[in-house]
Design goal:
Pfam families: MMR_HSR1. The protein is α/β, with parallel strands linked by helices. It is 57% helix and 6% strand. It has a seven-stranded mixed sheet with strand order 3-2-4-1-5-6-7, sandwiched between helices. Helix 1 packs parallel to helix 9 and helix 15 runs antiparallel to helix 17.
Length: 552
């Protein structure tokens, strides 16, 4: 429902309380997200605000608590008496007069627990309506506080504590000290976000010439605007003569009638606490070039080129063994297989457990570690651009953790990669032809030796047939000699052909292995480096959004 007393209609107390739920929830979310990334003092202040808000909302929502704050000699006690219409607070020429907070209470039912929470022991129950005879009852609590510039530290502590608890702040200044820098810097400016629940009173205007009052009031208004309280109007008042007292009473009555002061105070506390939290900033877009630089650096650290070269060397070796001239190809078996030497499978490796089948790549040396460190830190710096110091530090911590895990993770990435080093179908074809050529050459050679060997054993030497009638230069050549020479020549040619094919296909296998290894390194970079860093960036976005909702 709507209530009068202000500009436009306002929801009543319960509805207004619901309006602070979302900012309070956002502040709690920001505190949770900011753990370890925002100054602990700022988080603690936000927690105190949340706790105080919960405590205040559990107490009377009917009463509006108004605190009179002022420096020594400002006359706040006299002013409270004038507003209350009774000698409630003690006044004296000696300072400080007020050593403890004192409350004047209208409509005391339900106010006891509230005053206990405020730790205000001295209480005066008023027997006449706050706004005068015939006015509607207003549940109001006026609190006279010790001087906030008191030399007694316990007095100042009371004023500072209640400045964080009352619903409405009435700053009382006098013509002599209204411009005191300490008052503005240490007390008024820190509560600038509470302008909606603040009233400023220039007391003792009876000490000024009437013509000077507007000038001094305007000067005070400008000082308050400089403090950040742009919406606060200054009320010229004299507690001694009564000038302006009714206007101040009406201002307080409006706060009580609207019943928004407690909620607006809580909302202002939330905004102030959220404003203290370190802004997360806006994470910039990580460029594709930064991600590529990370992948290149990790690929070098993982020795992707060396492994891909081993794939090509292994393929050439095994191709030479399978397709080379059998008389000499066996020598290739004496050389170690480049892949097996690294404990890498030459066949399919997708089913291999990378934790059980580790590679025999040498541990990262200083050069590889430096390369990995430079690439990871470079990526972290790019990812932290635009963020506050706390979040940037958290990102660099994730980067340091990634660097610790990377040597083992990169080795696993290489071990689980299907390097595509399997043999080819043409090996068997050339190998079969090689053996056939060798058989033909051996048969031809033995045939040529038979006419020499058999007579030694008393056996008849066979006739060596010759090529005839072909009208080529082969005419007259012994057929066994042609078989011998042809078999050897074919074997050599097939060996050369196998070497050429092995080199070309090995180069293709090297390129394919490099692509697959690079893909696994990219996957490792995503899991070990990018994902944790992006998690921090997302957390920073959520934190900034929560702070924005709390301030809104």
């Amino acid at each position: 429902m709507s209530r009068g007393g202000g500009q436009g209609g306002h929801r009543d107390g319960p509805g207004d309380e619901q309006g602070v739920d979302a900012p309070l929830g956002a502040l709690a979310e920001a505190v949770e997200l900011g753990e370890g990334r925002v100054a602990e003092a700022d988080l603690a202040a936000a927690r105190r605000v949340a706790a105080r808000a919960g405590e205040r909302r559990a107490l009377s929502s009917e009463h509006t608590v108004v605190g009179f704050f002022g420096a020594t000699g400002s006359g706040k006690s006299s002013l409270l008496n004038a507003v209350a219409g009774a000698a409630v607070a003690r006044t004296h020429v000696r300072r400080p007069t007020t050593s403890e907070a004192l409350a004047a209470v209208w409509e005391p039912r339900g106010a006891e627990a509230l005053l206990d929470w405020l730790e205000v022991r001295e209480r005066r129950v008023m027997d006449r309506p706050f706004a005068g005879e015939g006015a509607a009852p207003l549940p109001v609590v006026l609190i006279d506080l010790p001087d906030f510039d008191s030399v007694a530290l316990e007095h100042r502590a009371i004023a500072e504590r209640l400045a964080g608890q009352v619903d409405v702040l009435v700053w009382v200044v006098d013509p002599q000290k209204y411009a005191d820098a300490v008052i503005h810097r240490d007390f008024i400016a820190p509560l600038a976000t509470h302008a909606a629940v603040t009233a400023a009173v220039l007391n003792q205007v009876d000490l000024l010439p009437p013509a000077e009052v507007p000038r001094v009031a305007a000067s005070l208004e400008q000082l308050l605007r400089d403090d950040g309280l742009g919406r606060v109007l200054v009320l010229p008042v004299s507690a001694r003569t009564g000038e302006g007292v009714e206007a101040l009473r009406a201002r307080i009555a409006r706060f009580a009638t609207e019943r928004r002061a407690a909620t607006e105070r809580l909302a202002a506390d939330v905004r102030a606490a959220a404003g203290r939290l370190e802004a997360a900033g806006t994470p910039g877009q990580v460029r594709g070039a930064d991600a590529k630089a990370l992948e290149r650096g990790l690929a070098q650290a993982a020795r992707v080129d060396a492994v891909a070269q081993a794939v090509a060397g292994s393929y050439r070796k095994r191709a030479g063994q399978a397709t080379g001239w059998p008389v000499t190809a066996w020598l290739l078996r004496l050389a170690p297989d480049p892949l097996r030497r690294l404990h890498l499978a030459v066949g399919r490796s997708r089913d291999r457990d990378a934790d059980l089948h580790r590679t025999s790549l040498p541990p990262m040396g200083p050069a590889q570690r430096a390369q990995a460190g430079q690439s990871v830190r470079g990526y972290a710096d790019a990812a932290a651009a635009g963020l506050g110091d706390g979040w940037a530090t958290a990102i660099r911590e994730r980067a340091a953790e990634a660097l610790e895990a990377l040597p083992a993770e990169l080795d696993r990435a290489v071990a689980r990669t299907d390097l595509g080093a399997r043999g080819s179908w043409w090996w068997q074809l050339l190998g079969a032809i090689q053996w056939l050529a060798l058989v033909v050459a051996v048969v031809g050679g033995v045939w040529l030796l038979l006419p020499v060997l058999l007579p030694l054993w008393g056996m008849v030497a066979p006739t060596i047939p010759q090529v005839a009638g072909t009208e080529t230069w082969f005419d007259g050549w012994p057929i066994p000699l042609l078989a011998l020479l042809g078999g050897v020549a074919l074997g050599v040619l097939l060996g050369l052909l196998g070497a050429v094919l092995g080199g070309a296909i090995g180069a293709a296998r090297r390129a394919r292995a490099r692509r697959r290894l690079t893909a696994e390194v990219r996957r490792t970079a995503q899991e070990v480096v990018v994902a944790p860093i992006e998690g921090e960036r997302e957390r920073a976005r959520a934190f900034a959004a929560a702070v924005a909702r709390a301030i809104r």
